[in-house]
TrEMBL record:
Domain of life: Bacteria
All copies of domain TonB-dependent receptor-like beta-barrel, residue ranges: 437-945
One Gene Ontology term, aspect cellular component: cell outer membrane
UniProt keywords, alphabetically: Cell outer membrane, Membrane, Receptor, Signal, TonB box
Name by which UniProt lists this protein: TonB-dependent receptor
Signal peptide: 1-22
Compartments where found: Cell outer membrane
Family that this chain belongs to: Belongs to the TonB-dependent receptor family.
Primary localization class, coarse: membrane
Amino acid sequence: MARRSVRIAFTFMTGASALAMAAAPQAAMAQDAMTAASDAEEDNVIIVTGIRASLQAAADIKRDAQGVVDAISAEDIGKFPDTNLAESLQRITGVSIDRNSGEGSTVTVRGFGPDFNLVLLNGRQMPASGLGGCCEAPASRSFDFANLASEGVAAVEVYKSGRASLPTGGIGSVINIRTPRPLDRPGLQGSVAAKAVKDHTFDGTKITPELSGIVSSTFADDTIGVLLSGSYQRRKASLAQFNAGWREGYLGDENNWGSLGYGPNVENRPDATDTYQIPQNAGYDFTDIDRERFNGQAVLQVAPSDQINATIDYTFSQNTIDARTNSIGVWFNHGDTQSSWTDGPSAGPNFYAEAFGPGKDLAITGAVAANRSINHSLGGNIEWEHPSGMRWELDAHHSTAESKPTSPYGSNIAVGSAIFGVESQAIDFTSDMPVISANMYPGSEIDASNIRPAGNAFRNAYMRNRINEISLKGGYDFDAGFIESLDFGVTYTENKVRSAYGFIQNDTWGGTLTADETPDDLFTINNLPEDLSGMNGANDPSIIPSYFQVDTAGLINLLDSQIGICAGTGAGPGTCLADYTIDRTVNEKTLAPFIQSTHAFDLLAGEAHLRLGMRYEETTINSRAQVPVPTSTAWVGANEIAINYSDNGDFTRLKGSYDNWLPAIDFDMTPIDNVKLRAAYSHTITRPRYDLLQGGLTLAAPIRPDGGTTASAGNPGLLPYKSKNIDASAEWYYDTASYVSVGYFRKKVSNFPVTGVTEGPLYGLTNPAQGRGGELIAEAAAALPAGSNFDEQLAYVAANYPSVIDPVTGGILGQSGDPLVNFRLSQPFNGDRTATLDGWEFAIQHNFWDTGFGAILNYTIVNSDTFYDNTLRYTETQFAITGVSDSANAVLFYDKGPLQARIAYNWRDGFLSGYDTDPYYIESYGQFDASASYEFIPGLTGFVEGINITNADRKGHRRNDQSVFFAAPGYARYAAGVRLNF
């Protein structure tokens, strides 16, 4: 039996596997909120109401802005176009999104993914936290927009070109979330809204509530203002998905375990130089999601005179997700197989099948990811503007982001069970939804009475990010002359990040309790084709007919009481929270002064502007890490060797530093009326992921019996990515709220981390499969009846040679005379790799006279000089930029009188989403959204929304289109509600 990896799929938590759900569209509205010179423009952002008024303001500010700036604005107080900020941003030219559990989560701008885009709140750098994948310490810098509801947001601005006054960190863009201010709209006003949401669920229709409110008032002749806002959202939804794990990309002339043999059972075998991948495992996942989100904000403003404005604001968000997954699937041993393949040079399987003797498992898994992310931000700002033209601004904030589990078992757990009776299994990859079939031996039918508990894993992750920041900015506005204004300032930022991880794993994949000792009521049988419906292949008559809803908590309690599966934790009874074996801290301190001048002059028939800026940044990094110390190895499964660790970890402390000069130049001119030409040049940086900076040596487990494994260590001396950017655009504003624009961008990026690899032994760890353990397993195979599996052979060794058995894992311990494990130790350093991305952005916004109808169309082309070559063997080192793809949006709207309506189509072309030894591709995807509202009486509006109304599906593959690693049917989501404005 092939022992399954501890990475039991939680891919529903990634953008690749989640359903695409986007809300109603809204046009981009640019706003230069980063300098005091634009304060007058900022006062007008939230005042626009309705689609047409918002588009008019968008066109005006797009024309008047310096540099390339786009945004989404609120149509009215408390009324943002979408309930999710990321889903709103995808309407902007050049912006694409990734989804997590069916909601917009992170953004890609001009081909650069989430880690390359910096998020600000009211101009302040925001911390970010998240627990990432299932099986490692979290390390991403990317901001999760799903944590924030949109009702308390005035605008989201996307700065695509560099600027000296902007904080650094976003090669793709700097995204500024602006919240409303009471003194921007004097008087008493507010909004209250209630919405009912209908989402797809396996157990019938679920209606969940969304409530929001915002109230703003000013006093003392509008010199004091108070604003309070809050929202509550509950969402229950279900996701179904096919998932598959794949072996490495072999060449057709290879013949080893895990590759294709040369027998007659291979149809259209890949040629000697073709690459191909064989499925290692596959299954169907059925996930129920319960998400609860709270957002709140309080703002106090005081303006004792026309020259002084002071603000104190506090923002809170809490996003709790409980995702429970039930899976059924198969694992391959690559023995008695049959298969059929497509043509090369990168071949994919039409089908892959394997037959077994008695004892092969049909895997059944209950998994839970229950986590909470909490964000706090407390800030203060004081502005002083003298009539002479002198300006000063002091701003400071303390902000934190924290993510941790809410389950007593950890952040991500998987409890395995199995029916040990598969006679043969196969996967047909020729349909949209790959079809898994399994034939069972008599007496081993797919029924709860035949299920036995097997292995399990309890992962416990934690991340906290704290930012303390203070900035002092000044400026002077000149009355006349070539220099229009001069701005300068300095910012000090301390960014401290802690990420921790630990796990308990019980490698009892051959089964623990018997089926008779396991209550049947822990497993509720469900109809698999019915819950998987929506894609071609789901109703194939050969598909596995059923899956089980696992009472995960009940099964854990049973196993803990019988065999002590949670004994490896020091957290006390009733919990399986693993102790942290990896605990890392990175502390970044940055000092950044800047100076920027703005010039206005006449050129040809119109006015021109030139902005010259320089920013200097000096950063120091201190990295502290606790990592586990390996003590021994144990051969626990046919294909896996576990690593044992001591109870105490090892602490390391490392330091690094760097500095950068970052110039920025913006130029625009109006050669003829209503036509604007722009050009910009800038340098920008993005800092590496935290795991690349964190010290400490980490070993990858499990080790394969036929080879070694990998190890990794961070490097706090890494320099940031650096990009040299060119932007140019031409815009024609041919009518009120109507324009056409075309833009070109080019980014040449350097300082990409290169992984240096050294090979050799570490910590004296040995490979029992290649030494004494291999001899004992061979003896067991000879002594037992033909066809015995590894677990039976291991039981023979334990009975006859108990001294070689590890009392913790039950595996065969590595001996001092066994061959040493070969580790491939990788550590990042800055190499000479560079990458160039360039592209074009096309947009048109048109209103059809006074009919109320209008349209928005945009298309983005992104090209890269890097690509992944699918025809190279997996051992070849490759380099490619991920996330690069074209995208498009089309919106048709109506806004006249009390009625507003929109229908929108959003499309993203296929792209390389990532790679390890082999690539991952997300296939092209498009979806339709629609919304409508009607104002019954002034201030009272009813509205309806439809998200993904055509049930668009998502899919991803590896080297070949038929090497599918996920496929997910899409489901529509509908909502209806009322909004009262006053």
